[in-house]
Design goal:
The protein has helices at residues 2-31, 36-52, 59-62; strands spanning 79-84, 89-94, 99-103. It is α+β, with helices and mostly antiparallel strands.
Length: 118
């Protein structure tokens, strides 16, 4: 039964789901200040779609919302951005108390977007 479902949708289904998730998350970011409850519904729906179709949410999409309360991040509205220069990390502090931290340097001391010269 699972194989039939997989064959039925194929790559087209995956592309459709990824497009839908992208639309939902962008819409959530647009309406977070005006209608927070709708933004929360959009994020929950996008996550459920990803889980149902076994599609990873992805690094860039994960950084768009809080892991604890699932609200989309809106700097200055529901989150604060802090920089930890000692550990080379950026901290997103949500109003719910959740903290997300992202590294902006690799372990060897090179910036994330640069590669060491050979």
């Amino acid at each position: 039964m699972l194989m039939a479902r997989k064959m039925e949708g194929g790559k087209n289904m995956r592309q459709k789901v990824e497009e839908r998730v992208e639309i939902l998350l962008s819409k959530a970011c647009e309406v977070v200040k005006a209608r927070p409850s709708d933004a929360l519904k959009y994020v929950k729906t996008a996550r459920k779609l990803c889980m149902r179709h076994r599609i990873p949410v992805g690094r860039a999409r994960k950084r768009m919302f809080c892991k604890k309360c699932l609200m989309p991040f809106a700097p200055g509205y529901n989150m604060k951005v802090r920089q930890d220069s000692k550990n080379k990390r950026v901290l997103y502090v949500c109003e719910c108390g959740g903290i997300r931290s992202f590294s902006y340097m690799k372990k060897k001391g090179y910036p994330v977007h640069e590669k060491p010269a050979d």
